[in-house]
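Try this one yourself first.
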């Protein structure tokens, strides 16, 4: 989330908090999942803006800092809490990143804090630089640090150098000479996976599920370019949904989009097919603002058009009629190569007459 900095008063309030290093007295602190650290003049209105809105559209709580409104030399207040509380810290290394003392302070503080907390992740993005630039093997960042040394002294600069070289060793994303759209989607999906936002909750102490998961993985032809339908069937209460959830958790990070539709049979009986279509579209496309008509046929058309070039993972839980499947994932040519559609059902007969599908008994 971006803070309102349009008015002089808002900017003064923010800088006051930073200079004092005080917590936000009497205010409720918002917890962020991702902290974006970037050089505003390089990427604010381009790459960073697109990445920010892509993540927010996917339901990720993002703090987008703008170092140019910062005053003083201390990190404190809301900024300090946002850096420390965020699960993922994303420095966007651009050509002028090292010329910002604020960016370097944020980086140094997060490196120090991450060393104390095992659940914190740093995900570097090399926007228009190479890792060697950030590792100080070229003059690009070295020259900027020399200028800082004249103002801040050798001790501060040495700490910034150490932070830069440490983060540059982390496997991140390189954007040099690459299109932004595809990379932004890939970064967003990587963040979703790291935040486990695609993960299904599973019961504790599951016994004997590993072999079943492996059997399903084999049937799905892992790595195959084919669109694969797989049916998990058996009587109620034997763990079909749990098994599908376990498989979903294990392989969801291999797909461009994922969706788990629970209780399809019950939703259909309640007349909620359009709601299911909208859920499927919003989860796969990571967009909650889609204008989807309240029409089943229109929903089918949009699913077919928007998914045909995407590698997707879809779980349709508790299906008992072909009519239900036909409105959500009827044909393999609706989906991109490598897509997998997993169906759980108590009765396999509804799809036997339509086409031969791989299946596993739960």
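Now uncover the answer:
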């Amino acid at each position: 989330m971006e803070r309102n900095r349009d008015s002089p008063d808002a900017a003064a309030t923010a800088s006051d908090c930073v200079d004092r290093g005080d917590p936000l007295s009497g205010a409720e602190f918002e917890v962020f999942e991702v902290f974006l650290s970037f050089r505003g003049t390089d990427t604010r209105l381009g790459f960073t803006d697109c990445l920010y809105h892509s993540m927010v559209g996917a339901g990720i709580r993002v703090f987008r800092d703008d170092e140019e409104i910062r005053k003083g030399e201390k990190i404190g207040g809301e900024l300090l809490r946002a850096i420390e509380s965020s699960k993922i810290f994303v420095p966007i290394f651009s050509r002028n990143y090292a010329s910002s003392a604020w960016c370097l302070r944020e980086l140094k503080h997060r490196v120090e804090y991450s060393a104390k907390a095992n659940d914190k992740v740093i995900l570097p993005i090399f926007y228009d630089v190479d890792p060697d630039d950030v590792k100080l093997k070229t003059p690009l960042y070295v020259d900027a640090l020399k200028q800082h040394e004249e103002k801040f002294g050798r001790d501060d600069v040495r700490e910034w150098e150490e932070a830069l070289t440490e983060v540059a060793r982390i496997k991140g994303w390189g954007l040099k000479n690459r299109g932004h759209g595809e990379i932004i989607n890939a970064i967003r999906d990587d963040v979703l996976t790291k935040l486990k936002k695609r993960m299904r909750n599973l019961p504790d102490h599951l016994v004997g599920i590993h072999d079943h998961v492996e059997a399903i993985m084999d049937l799905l032809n892992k790595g195959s370019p084919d669109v694969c339908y797989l049916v998990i069937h058996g009587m109620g209460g034997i763990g079909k949904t749990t098994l599908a959830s376990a498989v979903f958790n294990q392989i969801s990070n291999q797909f461009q989009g994922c969706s788990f539709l629970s209780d399809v049979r019950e939703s259909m009986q309640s007349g909620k097919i359009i709601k299911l279509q909208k859920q499927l579209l919003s989860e796969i496309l990571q967009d909650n603002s889609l204008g989807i008509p309240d029409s089943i046929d229109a929903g089918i058309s949009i699913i077919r058009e928007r998914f045909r070039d995407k590698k997707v993972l879809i779980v349709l839980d508790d299906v008992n009629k072909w009519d239900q499947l036909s409105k959500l994932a009827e044909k393999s040519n609706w989906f991109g190569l490598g897509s997998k559609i997993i169906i759980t059902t108590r009765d396999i007969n509804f799809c036997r007459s339509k086409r031969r599908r791989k299946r596993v008994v739960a």
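Discussion: Residues 1-28 have pLDDT under 50 and may be disordered. The CA atoms of residues 169 and 295 lie 51 Å apart.
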